[in-house]
UniProtKB/TrEMBL annotation:
Family listed: Belongs to the SusD family.
The name this protein goes by in its record: RagB/SusD family nutrient uptake outer membrane protein
Domain SusD-like N-terminal, residue spans: 100-226
Keywords carried by this UniProt record: Cell outer membrane, Membrane, Signal
UniProt organism field: Mesoflavibacter profundi
Residue span(s) of domain RagB/SusD: 266-520
Gene3D superfamilies: 1.25.40.390
Domain of life according to the entry: Bacteria
Pfam families referenced in this protein's UniProt entry, alphabetically: SusD-like_3, SusD_RagB
Annotated localization: Cell outer membrane
Amino acid sequence: MKTHKIVLSVVTACALLFTNCVKEEDLYQVDPNNETAETFWENSDDALRGVNAVYSSLLTDGTYMRSTPLLLDLKSDGARSQSPWPAMANVGKFNSSIADAAIYGWAFETYYQGIYRANQVLENVPAIEMDENLKNRVLGQAHFLRGLFFFHAVNMFKNVPLPLTSEEIYHEQKSQTEGWAQVISDLTTAANLLPVSYDDVNGPDLGQTGRATKGAALAYLGKAYLFTYDYPNAKTTFEDLFLLNEYALVSNYRDNFTAYNENNSESIFEVQFSREAGGGVELGWGGAPQPGWGKTSARAITYAPRGFGWTDVQPTWALYNDFLIEPTTSGDVDPRLEATMFFNSPNGMSLYGQDFATYYAGNSNDLNDLFCRKYQNSDGDFADEFDWRSGINERLMRYADVLLMYAEVLNESNLTQDAYPYIQQVRDRVNLPNLAVTQPNMTQQQMRDQIAHERFLEFALEGHRFDDIRRWGWLQDPAKLAWLQSRDPEFDSYYPGREYFPIPQSEIDNNPGTQQNEGY
């Protein structure tokens, strides 16, 4: 009987079609078991779930699970790669292939996934009847996250599309100037909508750590102004952040890179990873979330010392040597050296419960090499990183960065002497001498060089150095480029235009009129 009923239904449907009694829109039926955009955006819970989905784009392989730190670090003179994977090893050699979009293409794709999700929030949440303060917080987070994804896209890929809706299929490639203007617009809006913290809000987001705040929006807005050489606006924006009186440097520098003391007073915005959270133990490689995905990072195994992970990223000897330039006030080596890298220290060094010199005693190459320590689970709780499941949060914006960016803004505003105290706050933490005494009355150019040195040591292996090199114009300065080449042979293969990554070929194929970046 069931079979006959099915056949009858099909025959009846066919008859109806042929007699034009059914309109085309009647043929499209919504699966009641799956939510659509039309049925999803109904209440405040949906608004929060929607913005949470934007955050989840920070946790996948294209962004901070693995790819984005690699892309930001490997082009610097502080990192090198001997990875057997060409797509990875070629990043630092400025030789990413347009025929193979692995890693950089995943980043591009995931940035636009995040942008698309943010656009859905911004389009749909305003019409939801809900508490206005909560609505503003949700919209502020969406603007912040869209601004952050645009920041990466514009900064790393130069001329990119700037989709502001989720409806259109094709989006015209825009200039970098237009891109930065959109970044600034989103972050400005976010700063006006977001709370200073979630500790005293009224709503389901009360006390939820890790959400974007007013301080995060101001920090990135100031950074965007700095990157576009708008020093007056950068200055006032950073000063607005200082007025929040919300941030302070932690006493222990290394607390910024371990699973301990996360979301501390120095952290302005960080990506939340956890071994305990999530629906499973699989990594978020990309695409639609799967039930088995956890909320862990593959950064640790990718950067790990030999024998404890893949060792795809290592510090350079230039970075090591720069840490030795200036001793502390007690005559010791800058403590950030041992917080940044593993090496055969005369004082001894332990990693994953092993003594460095003993573990590598049988291999002179490794015994005399340098390995990454930041963001490693190496304090003895784990034997290695081979389970691919690091729970260490990625600190994207630290207060130390704001202090040194502000010092740079003061110097570029012809207020060089005013920059000293902000630099010294960072130096004091690691017991370095008073710069105003050891190097008083620096010229503007001398201060530029000093700030470059300070930033190199403070933010080593944190994804800042090459951004600095590019925005300072060092690659277009023959003397500076030669200096970089003397420090890191990977700069020998730099070619003009390759300070940016190529636009993925799939984007060029699918978005008519898109032009490839210069140099590819």
